[in-house]
Amino acid sequence: MALEGVILDVDGTLVLSNDAHAQAWVEAFAEHGYEVPFERVRPLIGMGGDKVIPRMVPELNAQEGPGKAIANRRKELIINKFGPKLTSANGTRDLVLKMRQSGLHLVIASSATTQELGILLKAAQVDDLLQEATTSSDADASKPAPDIVEAALSKAQMEPDNVVMLGDTPYDVESAGQAGVGVIALRCGGFSDEQLSGAIAIYDDPADLLKHYDHSPLAQAA
User: Fold this and answer.
1) Whole-number Å distance between alpha carbons of 61 and 58
2) How many domains does the chain have?
3) Are residues 196 and 109 in the same domain?
4) pTM value?
5) Which of 28, 54, 84 represents a domain boundary (last residue)?
6) Domain range enclosing 51
7) Which of 32, 63, 84 corresponds to the end of one domain?
8) 182-186, strands of its sheet edge to edge
9) Of 74, 91, 208, 222, which sees the most CB atoms within 10 A?
10) Are residues 79 and 178 in the same domain?
């Protein structure tokens, strides 16, 4: 089947934000009396925040008490402190333009909230190009569960066999895989090829994928 569309992760894929998210977690935990080293939380970025919190402090959860307060504070830090300093991944805008010109249906699948997503897309310099999105509110379970990818498929009315996902973490690969979608992985999110081994292809960043576009899985567009 010809490729019909692309599901887009945002953090670490279109915008270089993974380190910022990790630092926001460190600061949010610290403000509530929990010492969480950057090195412990960084490998979990790309996983839903509701899963990160109990991984760091088992007695906490994102739905109530200190865990909920920490989750809310992390969001505030991303929006107000880190968001304005974020930069686009190399080649993001040019790649999105190329995919649009190729006739691909583009839909975002992000664990971010709607408010965070607006800031992230602006930092990625594609806020005027990408309007169709599913966010944390569209999924019962966060990555690496398949819910957000399935929500994106449903919203775009596309079948898994006709779609690929662009992502940067092993949680993207796992989430999409459970939904029957292959992942083109990008190294700019900070994960190794071994960690991304379930992907159908791996490139350095959007610019590298664009450079090899005609020989990539994206070239199967109708």
Assistant:
1) 8
2) 2
3) yes
4) 0.95
5) 84
6) 18-84
7) 84
8) 133-134, 105-109, 5-8, 163-167, 182-186, 201-203
9) 74
10) no
Alpha-carbon torsion angle 74, 79, 80, 83, nearest 10: 110
Amino acid at site 143? K
**What 3 state SS string does 171-202 have?**
HHHHHHHHCCCEEEEEHHHCCCCCCCCCCCEE
Domain harbouring 51, CATH code: 1.10.150
Q: What is the pLDDT of residues 71-116, one digit of tens each?
A: 999 999 999 999 999 999 999 999 999 999 999 999 999 988 889 9
Residues 6+ apart with CB under 8 A from 216: 184, 201, 203, 209
Return all residues near 175 (Cβ < 8 A) that are at least 6 apart: 143, 144, 145, 146, 148, 149
- Cβ atoms of residues 218 and 184 within 8 Å: yes
99 in Cβ contact with 6 (< 8 Å): yes
Lookup: tokens for 181: 């979608």
Max CA separation in the chain (angstroms) = 54
